[in-house]
Amino acid sequence: MTPLLLGVRHHGPGSARAVRAALEAAPPDAVLIEGPPEADALLALAADDRMRPPVALLAHAVDDPGRAAFWPLADFSPEWVAIRWALGRGVPVRFIDLPAAFSLAAGAVVPAGAVAPAEDGAAGADPVRVDPLAVLAGAAGYDDPERWWEDVVEHRGPGGGSDPLAPFAALGEAMAALRGRYGHGGHERDLVREAHMRLQLRSARKEFSDRLAVVCGAWHMPAFSEKTTVAADRALLKGLPKVRTEMTWVPWTHRRLARQSGYGAGIDSPGWYGHLFQAPDRPIERWMTKVAGLLRDEDRIVSSAHVIEAVRLAETLAALRGRPHAGLTETTDAIRAVMCDGSDVPLDLIRDRLVVGDVLGEVPDDAPAVPLQRDLSRAQRTLRLKPEARERELELDLRKETDASRSRLLHRLRLLSIGWGEPTAGRGSTGTFRESWRLRWEPELHVRVAEAGVWGTTVLSAAVAKAENDAVTAADLAGITSLAERCLLAELTDALPVVMRALADRAALDADVGHLARALPALARSLRYGDVRSTDTSALAEVATGLAERICVGLPPACAGLDAEGAGRMRRDLDAVHTAMGLLPAERRPGERWSAVLRGLAVRDAVPGLLRGRAARLLLDDGRLDEDEAARLMSLALSTGTPPAEAAAWIEGFIGGASGGGMLLVHDERLLALVDGWLTRVSPEAFTDVLPLLRRTFSAYEPGVRRTLGELIRRGPATASGGQRRSEAAIPGFAPDLHLRRADAVLPVLRLLLGVPGPGPDPGSGTGLVPGTGPGLGTAPGPEAKGSAAEGRVEQGPGMPETPGIEDDDLAGVGR
Amino acid sequence: MTVSESSASTGAEVLRPHAEDAFAEELKALAAADDRPRPTGWRLSPWAVATYLLGGALPDGTVITPKYVGPRRIVEVAVTTLATDRALLLLGVPGTAKTWVSEHLAAAVSGDSTLLVQGTAGTPEEAIRYGWDYARLLAHGPSRDALVPGPVMRAMADGMTARVEELTRIPADVQDTLITILSEKTLPIPELGQEVQAVRGFNLIATANDRDRGVNDLSSALRRRFNTVVLPLPATPDDEVDIVSRRVDQIGRSLDLPAAPEGLEEIRRVVTVFRELRDGVSADGRTKLKTPSGTLSTAEAISVVTGGLALAAHFGDGVLRSADVAAGILGAVVRDPAADRVVWQEYLETVVRERAGWQDFYRACREVSV
């Protein structure tokens, strides 16, 4: 007796339903399923309550976790239905496909995550291969094989046919005809797999009985009725290369079942299929209701009348197109026309949330360890980094190869949310080639590793996949830039193109200059890191330049009409951007444009004073604004017409914040005089208003600077009245006239240095007494000199260098 | 996505024959070959209507010219909507063949595309419902004889397809007259205590512009009586360049502008700029862009080029150059002085400046932008 052959399409809900009906109608003694026999031991876990599809069987080579293959199973997968049915009845289940040990050895090129072995070739990427469904669909007059299969097989309603076994018989005949015409159709490896399946079937017959059910891809159905000898099948399998493999269950997601995520599991619309499988009846009506619910949650007005009309339109469209039932295409067209006002925007949401769906599978904890854990353990051994529960510090010198690898590993783990190491502020050196980490291995990190297993089988591939995913789903621009930075630190060169792409897109669409401004510094830093670690950062530099250009364009309008708080935020951004502009590579730096932007900011009235002052200051510091111009801007900002609060804000912007602000005033008396003059003009009421602002500005200065400023102000009248006397003042920071007493004091030293002999009164100098000897200088200050010290300091001129050994007081003392 | 120009001009006297006259032969052949079920009141089956619009060959060898070149899905949804007795709303920016599609749909479904209400800001209720023959009204009092039915009323009575052009230009209160017609399928005549009930086959096609400023948005009550189909802009740059240069040529001739021999390059440039800003992505697909608030439709590209031609003819050397179109483009793109200016400058700096062969254009744009 031939076994019950249940040919299916992997992940086909109609197939799944048909398989269940067939198994119910003719219960077999054992169920054989196309899949790797190594997984037999894991089958019991499928009955576990904690196991929730979508899940995948993962096989990987023990020595090379990067070589792996997945067999994903959703709850609408016929294989999964068969497994659950059998486990529920206590019927034995066996996997009968070629062992993963062979397929992994043969498919040395199978990349991690590709679902090569489980594919039935329905969507053959290889053009030489015959697509059996395409041939059948073409014969039926369809241009799209998937659609044909859906119309003919998947969309049969529950209990559509009277005989649950009839469809499989018909399908078997069709496939037999195809195989008779095309042979293996380019799927050469299938012959080996089918030989193995036949051998397994024979041994199962011996073990159980003749009442067997085989669930396999429809393409393989004819293989089981082929007349071959055991010896011939054995011969095919002889001498195949083999690798040591391990298997486990891993959680899977609908997104990864979907074709668009790059995993060739073969379906576009897992959410839709899941719906078709789960809906007890009236699938279109239920689907439309689901869509309406989603749209309502997003605050779109969708009434029951919309649902009714959408269902009608979908069904009439199906009739116009000659399909037995409305499929996903018809429902989507109907939803667009009726519920979405013809717009594609809400449709994208529906596609994302419902058609693909967010379902995440779960796997019981007692499933065997994932290969990622193995790869991690191996890396830990190689790098001599033992996971310890005790916290410890780790200093890394990135110039050493081992330390650099350690740093990369830790950064990659951090990207995967495996928080084994936390970077800390380094002790001692803060150079870019040093990193400090605090390591601590918590037991729950094992769970984290298991969770991260969905991303890949090695730390590197998983981190790349995770980074790419994070880049696409990141909420804001700053999130992506920091991700880019972390990618560079972790040396995930493969992830960079995706991250950069996401970054450029996000930057282009982001209308908030603040976001751009906050993103640029991280990028500029990353560029510097790129230098240290010799990674290729040209893509990064391009994005950073683009960002800088956009900031140049967008900043001026964004600075207008801000309140005090907004101006404060913008000022921080402005500073950060200015610093970052300086870090960009010289040939890409928009230097001229940026200073033009700053110049524009400094003179525009609509810009708050704080920012105008800041822009002027940044220009001045860069030497792009000469001091006369700065003084003009300041006097403009502080003139009588300006409201006092605005002027105080300008002052804060110009000289506040950074510690260098005060020195500017100390050195440039003109500016100081302007501030001073303005302050004395402020009316008493306004003074109370601006006082907190001014206090904030000046209290940030270093004590020395503050004191000097105070002294200068105390000398104020001289400054104010000295207008005409100082007209020839040459060097700012120095009094225009000679301080005669001090000048005298210098003379003896000068003489000594120049070797001019003959001390004595010098009539030309006109400065009175000159001490005869030098050697005594600075060694024996007289007591009276000490007494005058305080006074002497008050008199000290601004910026007068305090030369060690020649104390002002001493000279004064000697002079007496 | 364009419009077939080959109106087989059967009526030689008329400047522009109606669709049902111009393509009478095709409609006849389709009706003869059509063996599929027809909804009550339809001249053709939905399948045949779709074929009429999309083109094809009939078993008897008649070739049906495509009336609408664009996604098949759109025509299918439109025809199906009419078959489910829901009203159809064709949305799209100007120049996307909305009117053209609606005329041909009405011609194919009802054999008559003339039951038309042209929507304007001044369209009164009477245009949609009915008016009165005042001489008769004064002489004999209100009666059905004194009543002058509007196009929609005639369509209801005869089971035909009515058309409303530019629905969103009509004031909101007048728009809402359609609600009863579309939901109850009746048109009450309170003066006579009567009503007109629509017979099977009646339906309504409205067109509206979805990006025009200052339109009267549809109330949600009215909106949900319609299935909406958005007609897209030309799919490829070549199509659009073709449409623009053809139209510019026609307009230019009617304005007696001298022919601009080397203008194609600039036309292509205008179309590229418009498409890039409209789609929010550069032509090479590598840079995303912000989109300005203006429509940037094909029709506007045409007017920019025409304006540029006039500049070149009257003030320049007769050849269309970058400087001639730069100001026009700026005017079309920057509708909102604050937001759009940023969009435009970003576009200039990130896309135009780097592009090979666009230096003249970049300079010309910078000149007018600052």
TrEMBL record, chain B:
<dbReference type="GO" id="GO:0005524">
    <property type="term" value="F:ATP binding"/>
</dbReference>
<feature type="domain" description="ATPase dynein-related AAA">
    <location>
        <begin position="88"/>
        <end position="226"/>
    </location>
</feature>
<dbReference type="InterPro" id="IPR011704">
    <property type="entry name" value="ATPase_dyneun-rel_AAA"/>
</dbReference>
<protein>
    <submittedName>
        <fullName>ATPase</fullName>
    </submittedName>
</protein>
<dbReference type="Pfam" id="PF07728">
    <property type="entry name" value="AAA_5"/>
</dbReference>
<dbReference type="InterPro" id="IPR027417">
    <property type="entry name" value="P-loop_NTPase"/>
</dbReference>
<dbReference type="InterPro" id="IPR050764">
    <property type="entry name" value="CbbQ/NirQ/NorQ/GpvN"/>
</dbReference>
<dbReference type="GO" id="GO:0016887">
    <property type="term" value="F:ATP hydrolysis activity"/>
</dbReference>
